[in-house]
């Protein structure tokens, strides 16, 4: 069955808890498109360091929620001018091109021509208005993202700390200069209008799309996820104490690798990254624990892994004296 679910809450903890619950419980036969809007919140990626990515004092002073999501990627600011969507289905049915096509088709019906760009963005004239992140639980794949409809772009630099080298790599001077609202291209657009256009395109693509039955939602389990998401341990963790820090920007994102070394052996590893690979940190932590702090030993372990860790291995090896 193809479902559509629209959250009635504007609380980021509620909405991301429901997002995670659906990913955990969706049946292999079903597909769902979930929408939600958050009031003033900064959402950080699964492996990001909030101490370095966010202006925490300003968030607290302005009453802005700080929420860590389960997917990878970077930090984003949400308000009521930002529409969030989440596609979920079994990996056999999962088709990112179809999902992007639904978004682009909905925009076209509203008279807005957009295109995909970069690793996970949708943009107009090179200016980003939508970013996406990904997660998997068992055989269910999730792709969730944002759509800047009429968001307050003036506060992005107020709440988010974007690494200077990331801005240099993109050839811009601030977060605000490389993003835009859809309202700049259609002045009267609303989040409801955008959502309804996506729902229509979704139904056209898959043939139907009925409302998700609320009696299928286990509120006790959703509240348990919310409690986890709103905890200090999940959101902030502990400020890392480390002996060695390796930090660099790669084609796929930034990474900070913190190593604690005792008796010439790596005792603990913390990896902070805005990489879309949400498993990157966990895989590196498991890989390096107990390894001797020697160039050849570290390189040998890291090169056993796949993907971005190859780039990290080469960088770390290049910094050893």
In words, what does this structure look like?
This protein has helices spanning 12-25, 50-53, 56-62, 96-109, 156-159, 164-170, 191-206, 219-229, 232-235, 280-288, 295-302, 308-319; strands at residues 2-6, 31-36, 41-44, 65-68, 76-78, 82-90, 115-117, 121-124, 127-137, 140-148, 210-211, 244-250, 253-262, 265-273. It is an alpha+beta fold and 321 residues long. The strands form three sheets. The chain has an eight-stranded mixed β-sheet, sandwiched between helices. A three-stranded mixed β-sheet has the order 4-3-5, with helices on one face. Strands 12-13-14 form a three-stranded antiparallel β-sheet. β8 (121-124) and β9 (127-137) form a beta hairpin. The protein is globular and about 60 Å long.
Short characterization:
With 321 residues, this protein is of the alpha+beta class. It is 34% helix and 27% strand. It has helices at residues 12-25, 50-53, 56-62, 96-109, 156-159, 164-170, 191-206, 219-229, 232-235, 280-288, 295-302, 308-319, and strands spanning 2-6, 31-36, 41-44, 65-68, 76-78, 82-90, 115-117, 121-124, 127-137, 140-148, 210-211, 244-250, 253-262, 265-273.
Give the helix proportion (percent range).
25-40%
Beta-strand content estimate: 25-35%
> What order do the helices and strands follow?
EHEEHHEEEHEEEEHHHEHHEEEHHH
Radius of gyration: 20 Å
Low-pLDDT regions: 167-174
E-strand count: 14
Spatial gap, N to C terminus: 58 Å
Shape: globular
For the biggest sheet, the summary is: 8 strands, mixed
Instruction: State the secondary-structure class.
Output: alpha+beta
- Widest sheet: strand ordering: 7-8-9-10-6-2-1-11
